[in-house]
Amino acid sequence: MTDRTTPPPRAAIDRAGRWVDRAFRIQATALYLFLYVPIALVVLFSFNAGNRTGELRGLSLRWYQVAVEDPFAMGALQNSFVVGAWTAVIATTLGTLAALALQRTPRRIRAVFEAITYVAIIIPGIVIGIATLIFFVNAFAWINPQLAGIWAAIGAGAPPTIGTGLHTIIAAHVLFTMAIVIVLVRARLAGMDRSLTEASFDLFASPLRTFVQVTLPQLRPAIITGALLAFTFSFDDYVIASFVAGPGKPTLPMYVFSSIRRGITPEINAIAAMVLTVTVTLLVIVSLIYRRSSRIAAAQRAAATADAAAGTS
Amino acid sequence: MPSPPDSTSRDVSADVELIDVTKRFGSVTAVDHVALQIERGSFYSLLGPSGCGKTTTLRMIAGFEQPTSGEILIAGVPVAGVPPYRRNVNTVFQHYALFPHMDVARNVGYGLRQVGVTRDEEQRRVGEALDLVRLSGYDRRRTWELSGGQQQRVALARALVNRPTVLLLDEPLGALDLKLRKEMQLELKGLQQELGITFVYVTHDQDEALTMSDVIVVMRDGRVQQQGSPEALYERPVNRFVAGFIGQSNTIAGRLSGLDLDGGMASVETPTGLVLNGRITDHGARPSIGDEAIVAIRPERLEIAPGTPSPTAGWTSVAGRIHQETYLGDQTEYRLATDLGQLVARRAHHGHAETTTVRSGESISVRWPDDANLVLVA
Question: Which residues of chain A have a CB within 8 Å of the CB of B63?
Answer without folding.
Answer: 201
